[in-house]
Every structure is written in structure tokens, then in C-alpha cells.
Specification:
The chain is of the alpha+beta class. Helices cover 36% and strands 12% of the residues. Strand 2 and strand 3 form a beta hairpin. Strands 2-3-5 form a 3-stranded antiparallel β-sheet. Strands 1-4 form a two-stranded antiparallel sheet. It folds into 2 domains: 2-32; 56-166, Alpha-Beta Plaits, CATH 3.30.70. The site of one iron/sulfur cluster has 14 residues, from helix 3.
Length: 187
């Protein structure tokens, strides 16, 4: 090996140095003409993959334009690092979130809150565009979460879609619901 030769010699042979320099120049030349893999963000943005899930947001109901959140607090209960806080506001026809806060700086992006939401109110968006050097800006209240939902494209993965995907196949579910003699004899 070259290393062995070099260490065995009293001084570093000129040939070894030349070969190393040429190899380094070759790498530089190859990369000089290679298409860059980086982009000038934020002027230039990459197209996100279809299944990209980034920033969390709150959504409005598409039919009525009302806030979709009913303040049920399921997302608060399921959140592993407990970064969601919701207060329910009781209404005549339905309930709302009186207040909703999310500490994004401690969020794990596990998506559990999205998965349990019965009204598809909390969603992930196709953006990570909220970088800041001020941690306080990542404490999101209800208004900011709604604003993020209006600005950024929503991910395909809503709670209802995810729960449908994770459930058993329809046939198996129907079969499981049928009362059978076999099930009656089981423990
Ligand atoms: S993505 Fe996970 S960690 Fe983040 S708010 Fe939702 S449940 Fe909590
Ligand atoms: S976002 Fe969904 S799960 Fe969370 S409180 Fe609102 S309706 Fe309930």
C-alpha cells in the first residue's frame, strides 16, 4: 500500500505526493462539471414527494368553512411529548377549540395527533418552512396553526384516511363481525 511505502521511507517520496495531488485534482475536476445537488433555497424550492409530511396545521371544514377542530382533546392525550394543549368551547350544535397551542420546538413529528383526530382538523403540510433562531416563534397558537394551514399545501394523510388504511381489509372486517358457531365455541 502507498501508506506503507510512505511510512517505510525516510522522507515522503515525490511520486506519492504527485499521485495524491493528481488524484485530488481529478476529484475536483469531476465535481466541477457535475450538476449541483443543492438549490438556492428559499428562492428555489424542490418539489416535495407526494407523501411528505412536515409542519403541523389546523384546517377548516371544506363545506362550511368553519374551524374543523371540535376541541375533543384526543390529540392532546395521545401526544407523546405532551406539546399540545386544547381547551374546549361548548356550542349548541357542535363544540370548538377555545384555545389550541402546540410547542413545535418539542414536537417529534410522530403524526399520532393527526391519526386520532376525528374531524381531520389537525393535519401535516408539505412544508418545513418555519426555521427561526427564536424558539418562542415555534410556540404556535390556534391562529398561527390555521394560518399555516391556509398557506401550505395539506398532506394527503388525514386522520380518517390513515385510520381507514390501518384497519383490517373490509372483507375480513365483515367476516369478523359475523356471529359464527366457531366464535361461539371459543373461550
Ligand atoms: S406529531 Fe406527535 S409529537 Fe408532534 S404534536 Fe403530534 S402527537 Fe405530538
Ligand atoms: S385537533 Fe382534532 S383531535 Fe385535536 S382537539 Fe381538535 S378535533 Fe380533537
Amino acid at each position: 500500500m502507498v501508506v506503507g511505502e510512505a511510512s517505510g521511507a525516510a522522507g515522503t517520496p515525490v511520486g506519492v505526493i504527485l499521485r495524491a495531488v493528481l488524484r485530488a485534482m481529478q476529484v475536483t475536476l469531476v465535481n466541477l462539471f457535475r450538476t449541483p445537488v443543492t438549490v438556492h433555497y428559499p428562492e428555489e424550492k424542490r418539489a416535495y414527494p407526494d407523501r411528505y409530511r412536515g409542519l403541523l396545521a389546523l384546517a377548516y371544514e371544506p363545506d362550511t368553512g368553519e374551524e374543523a377542530c371540535i376541541g375533543c382533546r384526543l390529540c392532546e392525550y395521545v401526544c407523546p411529548p405532551a406539546v399540545i394543549k386544547v381547551e374546549m368551547l361548548k356550542g349548541e350544535k357542535r363544540n370548538y377549540a377555545k384555545s389550541f397551542s402546540l410547542e413545535l420546538y418539542a414536537c417529534e413529528f410522530c403524526e399520532l395527533c393527526v391519526q386520532v383526530c376525528p374531524t381531520d382538523a389537525i393535519v401535516m403540510t408539505k412544508s418545513f418552512d418555519l426555521a427561526t433562531s427564536d424558539r418562542r416563534e415555534l410556540l404556535l397558537d390556534k391562529d398561527r396553526l390555521h394560518a399555516i394551514g391556509l398557506v401550505h399545501q395539506q398532506s394527503w394523510a388525514t386522520g380518517n384516511k390513515l385510520r381507514t388504511m390501518q384497519g383490517p381489509p373490509k372483507q375480513a372486517a365483515a367476516h369478523a363481525a359475523e356471529p359464527t358457531a366457531a366464535s361461539g365455541t371459543k373461550s
